């Protein structure tokens, strides 16, 4: 009697669901079926003697075959390969389709959790706050969070095709827009959280730690010329901010560099905004006496109009006019081996130094605010570097797409 080597029917389909089906494809793949029962080799001298064939079925016949192990070398999304596994299909391969919310949570980056925590803290600070007119401010913050969550569902939840420029731009403008606009809402939100101000305590701490207050010590040097000089740099902060943020927001091709810069600079802003609720204050201009009035030209008038019209009013600790330029200096210096930072970091450092001095000369900040801003910037640089390295390894291991999709490109398509 002849015993035939019969290969069991296998089914590969359950292991071939791609979590990034839109725009994703397997880079290389190799299938080795795992039989439910061993094949019987033919007896010696019988027809078919030798090793039974274990060749995997063709891809076209996968729907009719039993469970198997899949070796997935990588998943390609927008030309970028993510991870791979020699044992089990863990990269870009899931046993069943995920819901939009599940995909969103799975794809969230650390900075996304920072944004969600940021607005949540503001919302509950208003809920339990003691200031006036809180319900309208709660609606403001709720609206910001709605925009943020909608953007994250569309991009991290893959409602928009992942790896496309549309998805990338929606994500970039969602996070930038909500955080940027939230600053201009602080002039309404901070009074709703609390009507207190800690100027007396901050000034007392300054005198204990440093023995003087720069705004008072430099009053003797106040003239229309010096006021206009420092007003130019103080207002130039917004230009420095735009020159650093906009290229990363729109055109930077290095996604890892963009991720590090983004996490750091957003950490600076979110942390500072939250601390304004904890340590609110107006600044030396409102609490101290000066012999010389600040007068100047067009830049001084621009500064006054900007601060009184759009400023948060009680946003002194820490000084963002110190923290943000200091972050730019440190980031540029760390990356001075690459363009454009190897050319720009000395200029950024010189410009930033004048902004920092201007914050005290123009009587907006106490000295302790400056040290707090420098400390915040330094911590953000260190934390963003370490967290981004961990985040990059995690996303590669899990087969998740990069934090940022492709940036804009102005190269002409070949005809």
Keywords, separated by commas or semicolons:
415 residues, mainly alpha, 3 domains, three-stranded antiparallel β-sheet, two-stranded antiparallel sheet, 13 helices, 7 strands, globular, disordered N terminus
Could you characterize the architecture of this molecule?
The protein is built from 13 helices and 7 strands. 36% of the residues are buried. The strands form 3 sheets. Strands 2-5-6 form a 3-stranded antiparallel β-sheet. The chain folds into 3 domains: 13-94, no CATH class; 98-195; 197-388, no CATH class. The chain is globular and about 70 Å long. It is mostly helical. Residues 1-7 and 10-95 have low confidence and may be disordered. The longest helix is centred in the last third of the chain and has 32 residues, at 367-398.
Summarize this structure briefly:
The chain is mostly helical and 415 residues long. The chain is built from 13 helices and seven strands. It starts with 16 loop residues before the first strand and ends in a 17-residue tail after the last helix.
Helix content: 55-70%
How many helices in DSSP terms?
A: 13
Total beta strands? 7
Q: Could you say which structural class the secondary elements and strand pairing correspond to?
A: mainly alpha
End-to-end C-alpha gap: 69 Å
Q: Please tell me the overall pLDDT.
A: 81
Strand order of the largest sheet: 2-5-6
Radius of gyration: 29 Å
Q: Largest beta sheet, briefly?
A: 3 strands, antiparallel
Which band does the percent of strand residues land in?
A: 5-15%
The domain tally reads 3
Order of helices and strands: EEEEEEEHHHHHHHHHHHHH
**What general form does the structure show?**
globular
**Poorly predicted regions:** 1-7, 10-95
């Amino acid at each position: 009697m002849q015993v035939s080597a019969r290969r069991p029917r296998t089914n590969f389909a359950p292991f071939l669901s791609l979590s990034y089906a839109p725009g994703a494809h397997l880079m290389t793949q190799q299938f080795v079926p795992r039989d439910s029962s061993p094949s019987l080799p033919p007896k010696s001298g019988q027809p078919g003697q030798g090793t039974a064939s274990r060749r995997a079925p063709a891809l076209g016949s996968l729907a009719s075959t039993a469970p198997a192990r899949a070796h997935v070398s990588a998943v390609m999304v927008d030309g970028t390969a993510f991870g791979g596994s020699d044992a089990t299909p863990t990269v870009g391969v899931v046993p069943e389709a995920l819901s939009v919310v599940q995909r969103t949570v799975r794809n969230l980056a650390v900075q996304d959790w920072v944004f969600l925590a940021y607005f949540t803290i503001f919302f509950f600070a208003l809920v339990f706050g003691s200031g006036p007119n809180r319900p309208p401010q709660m609606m403001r913050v709720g609206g910001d969070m709605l925009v943020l969550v909608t953007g994250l569902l569309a991009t991290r939840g893959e409602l928009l095709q992942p790896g496309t420029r549309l998805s990338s731009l929606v994500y970039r403008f969602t996070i930038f827009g909500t955080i940027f606009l939230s600053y201009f809402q602080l002039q309404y939100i901070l009074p709703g959280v609390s009507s207190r101000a800690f100027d007396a305590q901050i000034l007392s701490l300054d005198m204990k730690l440093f023995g003087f207050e720069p705004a008072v010590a430099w009053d003797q040097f106040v003239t229309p010329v010096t006021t206009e000089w420092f007003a130019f740099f103080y207002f130039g902060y917004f230009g420095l901010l735009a020159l650093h943020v906009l290229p990363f927001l729109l055109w930077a091709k290095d996604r890892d560099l963009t991720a590090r810069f983004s996490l750091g600079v957003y950490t600076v802003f979110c942390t500072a905004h939250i601390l304004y609720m904890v340590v609110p204050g107006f600044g030396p201009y409102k609490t101290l006496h000066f012999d010389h009035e600040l007068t100047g030209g067009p830049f001084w008038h621009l500064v006054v109009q900007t601060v009184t019209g759009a400023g948060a009013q009680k946003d002194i600790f820490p000084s963002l006019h110190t923290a943000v330029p200091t972050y730019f200096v440190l980031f540029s210096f760390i990356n001075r081996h690459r363009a454009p930072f190897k050319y720009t970091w000395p200029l950024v450092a010189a410009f930033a130094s004048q902004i920092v001095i201007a914050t005290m000369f123009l009587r907006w900040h106490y000295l302790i605010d400056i040290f707090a801003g420098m400390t915040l910037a330094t911590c953000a640089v260190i934390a963003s570097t370490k967290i981004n390295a961990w985040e990059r390894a995690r996303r590669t291991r899990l087969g998740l797409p990069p934090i940022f999709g492709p940036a804009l490109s102005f190269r002409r398509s070949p005809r």
